[in-house]
Amino acid sequence: MAYLKLNTRALKHNFLFLDELFKSHGKDWGVVTKVLCGSKLFLEQVIKLHPDCIFDSRLSNLEMVKKINPKIKTGYIKPPPQRHVEKLIKVADISFNTQFETIEMINRYAQKAGKVHQIVIMIEMGDLREGVMREDFVDFYARVFDLEAVEVMGIGANLNCLNGIMPSHDKLIQLSLYEQLVEAKFNKKIPWVSLGTSVTLPLLLKNLVPEGVNHFRIGESLFFGNNLFDDSSMEGMKQDVFMLYAEVLEVMEKPINPTGYVGSNVAGETPVFEIEDYSETSVRVLVDIGILDIEIDNIRPLYEEYHLEGGSSDMIVLDVGTNKHNIKAGDMVPFHINYMGALRLLNSKYIEKRLD
What is the CATH number of domain 8-233? Predict the structure, then answer.
């Protein structure tokens, strides 16, 4: 059976690296755990690191966090669904909001529960996903400040999530100016200016994040140690927090070229082959994971000489050349995975989850 392994030492290394980085720049931060898909086994490892706050986009995942440690601060990082506001109040201490009618509901349910719920109000900064339009922002705040059981914790924005609009020094400055405008107009202190996601980390490393932007929400860079600006590895961070292992089902020398009439495969694709010498062969390996579990573009064999030939619903085929590693049936083949690959694997009931 294929399994996904979390390297706890690499995770701790990346967490401490980021914690020191943010402290040295005077920034607050929290861990985004949505890639873990509510896995109790993996969430426990994150909670052991004592993050200031855990953010997620699924209420069921935050519910699991609270079951593991009821005292840890939690945040819901997308506009809350109105049908689940009552549950939101139970499992999230903070929520990120854009709809005033929803905030009114939060206020009512928070009053009923005897709580004060903290909110971050998201502003539209160009990526056209969630966010209050900038021309409506001041009036929006004026209405929210009248609510008794809601505390404005911050102003926030998202970039690079839908249309690929990248953060820049200018956009960060704009967001911090909006925070200053609201504080001056309403004489209210807003603790967080939150535009810091993993894609903003390279700007911080270059000292291009203004002092006013003081809060980061980090998921992908923590778990993958990558620079989202250019998809490179982040110097000083580990890239092997997650590894996928798939069991070898078949090892056999076969022709390089298929033979017969070419139609559409199980994925609806019509493969195109280079016409080569039909006498050429290589060793091909079948492993027990398929496109039901992961897109082939989201995994990469640990051994660079291995080539991913393709996959069906439950199996992937590797060309291992001359099989210099002497792979045999029953062996486990390791793969690197990217963020989207991990997201799919963690959401699959067919993939075992393990710790290292």
Answer: 3.20.20.10
DSSP calls for 179-227: HHHHHHHHT----EEEEE-GGGHHHHHTT-S-TT--EEEESHHHHH-EE
Would you state the structure tokens that stand for residue 316, as one six-digit string?
């992937």
Question: What confidence category does residue 256 fall into, taking pLDDT thresholds of 50, 70 and 90?
Answer: confident
The tens digit of pLDDT for each residue in 40-95 reads 999 999 999 999 999 999 999 999 999 999 999 999 999 999 999 999 999 999 99
Q: Which tokens is 71 given?
A: 């005292």
Task: Please name the amino acid found at residue 297.
Answer: D
Q: What is the 3-state secondary structure (H, E, C) of 47-76?
A: HCCCCCCEEECCHHHHHHHHHHCCCCCEEE
Supply the pTM of this predicted model: 0.93
CA atoms within 13 A on the CB side of 356: 15
What secondary structure does DSSP assign to 315-335, as a single string? -EEEE-TT-TT---TT-EEEE
Characterise 236 by phi-psi region: left (phi > 0), alpha (psi -120 to 50), beta (else).
Answer: left
Q: What is the pLDDT of residue 278?
A: 64
- Which sequence spans correspond to the domains of the chain? 8-233, 242-355
DSSP β-bridge partners for residue 283? 253
| CATH for the stretch 242-355 | 2.40.30
Cα 2 to chain centroid distance, Å, stands at: 22
Asked if the domains at 8-233 and 242-355 fall in one CATH topology, the answer is no
